[in-house]
């Protein structure tokens, strides 16, 4: 509104004011926010960073495979993982490096191998958790150096657009901005650690119930529940304060300039 008022006080023809307003609206609302994100890129090319992180992750999972092979070398288990030569009735599923089982009943001939299979499950799950934490750290560092850094730069570049400033201020006030997303991500990481600690306290990975239900099913009544506490109103207000202040300052400057031009204009 104040931009339109400023244009109206500096021009004498209605058509000229209308054309300038349309031009500025298209430029500040549509063109500049999109152009700045794709044309001005202080972060640089991030493909090399992502490729390096992917290579490190592949090396970590290759290390997991080597540790698994060393364990199986000294294990009496026969056959190929994850099922080996254990006979059972029921269903099993395999997804990448994580194995899920539902052995309804283990065959009597395979009972002597069950303790060794439990040791294998305890080892392989502990290994995947330990190396998974390394993978998570690499991904977190890559995210901080690429996507989050790029998003931060985009936010600063788009502060020259009043429409973008308004979007940032309202999203920060509602808790749906980048900081709010990072809060949720940290909450999920904390919940993951709670689940891992819960399974370790129960010695779940070495339990027969981890892969078979022929001697009872798992009772999940005390499984930790995920809870996400959103930032309170005051914290969101502090996050939105910078953008709100810029909006207020921008409106104040526009009003003062418009007022000075208006009182000096010849009627």
Summarize the structure.
A two-stranded antiparallel sheet has the order 1-2. The protein has 267 residues and is mostly helical.
Fold and architecture overview:
This protein is mainly alpha-helical and 267 residues long. The protein has a domain of 37 residues. It has a two-stranded antiparallel ribbon. α1 runs parallel beside α8 and α4 packs parallel to α5. The longest helix has 32 residues.
Give descriptors for this structure.
267 residues, mainly alpha, two-stranded antiparallel sheet, elongated
How are the SSEs ordered, and which strands pair?
Layout (H helix, E strand, L loop, with lengths): L1 H9 L3 H26 L7 H27 L14 E8 L2 E9 L7 H32 L1 H11 L4 H13 L3 H24 L31 H32 L3
Antiparallel strand pairs: 1-2
Helix pairs in contact: 1-2, 1-8, 3-4, 4-5, 6-8
| Strand percent estimate | 5-15%
- Radius of gyration over alpha carbons? 30 Å
Q: Return residue spans where pLDDT drops below 50 for at least 5 consecutive residues.
A: none
Largest sheet: 2 strands, antiparallel
| Shape type | elongated
**Cα separation of the termini:** 22 Å
Alpha-beta classification:
mainly alpha
Q: Let me know the number of strands.
A: 2
User: What's the arrangement of strands in the largest beta sheet?
Assistant: 1-2
Order of helices and strands: HHHEEHHHHH
**Residue-averaged pLDDT, rounded?**
80
What count of helical segments does DSSP give?
8
Work out the helicity level: 55-70%
């Amino acid at each position: 509104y104040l931009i339109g008022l400023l244009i109206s006080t500096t021009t004498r023809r209605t058509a000229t004011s209308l054309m300038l307003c349309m031009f500025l609206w298209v430029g500040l609302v549509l063109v500049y926010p999109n152009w700045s994100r794709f044309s001005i890129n202080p972060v640089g090319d991030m493909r090399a960073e992502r490729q390096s992180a992917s290579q490190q992750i592949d090396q970590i999972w290759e290390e997991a495979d080597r540790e698994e092979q060393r364990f199986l070398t000294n294990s009496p288990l026969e056959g190929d993982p994850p099922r080996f030569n254990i006979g059972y009735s029921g269903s099993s599923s395999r997804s990448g490096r994580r194995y899920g089982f539902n052995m309804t009943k283990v065959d009597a001939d395979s009972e002597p191998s069950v303790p060794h299979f439990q040791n294998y499950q305890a080892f392989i799950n502990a290994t995947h958790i330990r190396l998974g934490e390394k993978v998570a750290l690499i991904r977190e560092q890559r995210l901080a150096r690429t996507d989050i850094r790029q998003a931060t730069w985009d936010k600063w570049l788009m502060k020259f657009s009043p429409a973008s400033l308004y979007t940032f201020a309202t999203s920060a006030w509602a808790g749906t901005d980048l900081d709010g997303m990072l809060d949720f991500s940290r909450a999920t990481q904390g919940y993951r650690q709670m689940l891992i600690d819960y399974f370790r306290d129960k010695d779940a990975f070495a339990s027969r119930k981890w892969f078979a239900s022929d001697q009872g099913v798992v009772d999940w009544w005390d499984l930790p529940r995920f809870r996400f506490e959103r930032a309170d109103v005051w914290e969101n207000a502090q996050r939105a304060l910078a953008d709100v202040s810029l909006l207020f300052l921008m409106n104040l400057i526009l009003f003062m300039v418009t007022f000075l031009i208006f009182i000096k204009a010849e009627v």
